[in-house]
TrEMBL record:
<dbReference type="InterPro" id="IPR011008">
    <property type="entry name" value="Dimeric_a/b-barrel"/>
</dbReference>
<dbReference type="GO" id="GO:0005829">
    <property type="term" value="C:cytosol"/>
</dbReference>
<dbReference type="Pfam" id="PF01037">
    <property type="entry name" value="AsnC_trans_reg"/>
</dbReference>
<dbReference type="InterPro" id="IPR011991">
    <property type="entry name" value="ArsR-like_HTH"/>
</dbReference>
<dbReference type="Pfam" id="PF13412">
    <property type="entry name" value="HTH_24"/>
</dbReference>
<keyword id="KW-0804">Transcription</keyword>
<dbReference type="InterPro" id="IPR036388">
    <property type="entry name" value="WH-like_DNA-bd_sf"/>
</dbReference>
<protein>
    <submittedName>
        <fullName>AsnC family transcriptional regulator</fullName>
    </submittedName>
</protein>
<dbReference type="GO" id="GO:0043565">
    <property type="term" value="F:sequence-specific DNA binding"/>
</dbReference>
<dbReference type="InterPro" id="IPR019887">
    <property type="entry name" value="Tscrpt_reg_AsnC/Lrp_C"/>
</dbReference>
<dbReference type="GO" id="GO:0043200">
    <property type="term" value="P:response to amino acid"/>
</dbReference>
<dbReference type="InterPro" id="IPR000485">
    <property type="entry name" value="AsnC-type_HTH_dom"/>
</dbReference>
<dbReference type="InterPro" id="IPR019885">
    <property type="entry name" value="Tscrpt_reg_HTH_AsnC-type_CS"/>
</dbReference>
<feature type="domain" description="HTH asnC-type">
    <location>
        <begin position="5"/>
        <end position="66"/>
    </location>
</feature>
<dbReference type="GO" id="GO:0006355">
    <property type="term" value="P:regulation of DNA-templated transcription"/>
</dbReference>
<dbReference type="InterPro" id="IPR036390">
    <property type="entry name" value="WH_DNA-bd_sf"/>
</dbReference>
<keyword id="KW-0805">Transcription regulation</keyword>
Length: 153
């Protein structure tokens, strides 16, 4: 479903991406509107599926999750049964923050957040015990340079 966004909608979405905990009054003031029209627009954007789940972003390092690994997976299996088993294994692992199926030499890339290298090894051992993979390469992120969930609207 394609939804046309006007300037006010885009401003509202930008404000929500920046800080969704803002009051309707604050958002309305920043976008040059009043509270009720902003609330109606937000409701319409939710109904259209443009605004999804609302949550908070936690500081992983402050909570002791100091290691971020990007895991490159190649598989020799490409049938639906294997893929279903793989997806089930990934979905039940809370360490997996993101998972993408790729085009090219690498089949999947995972973003895995854990406390340390031992915790990554436990994750890895659990994953390969549940599903057969051809090759796994883990890359440790030395520094997070940029991270955002905001879209460039």
């Amino acid at each position: 479903m394609s939804v046309r966004l006007d300037d006010i909608d885009q401003k509202i979405l930008s404000q929500l991406q920046e800080d969704a905990s803002q009051s309707l009054d604050e958002i309305a003031k920043k976008v040059g509107s009043s509270k009720t029209p902003v609330w109606n627009r937000i409701r319409k954007l939710k109904d259209a599926g443009i605004i999804g789940q609302q949550t908070v972003i936690l500081d992983a390092e402050a909570l002791g999750f100091e290691a971020c690994f990007f895991v490159l997976i190649r598989t020799s299996e490409h049938d639906a049964a294997w893929q279903g088993q793989f997806l089930t294994a990934l979905k039940k692992r809370p360490e997996v923050q993101e998972a993408h199926r790729l085009a090219g030499e690498i089949d999947y890339i995972l973003k895995v957040r854990v406390r340390n290298a031992r915790a990554y090894d436990a994750f890895y051992q659990a994953l390969i015990s549940e599903v057969k993979v051809h090759n796994v390469t883990a890359l440790l992120s030395m520094e997070e340079i940029k991270a955002t969930t905001a879209l460039p609207i």
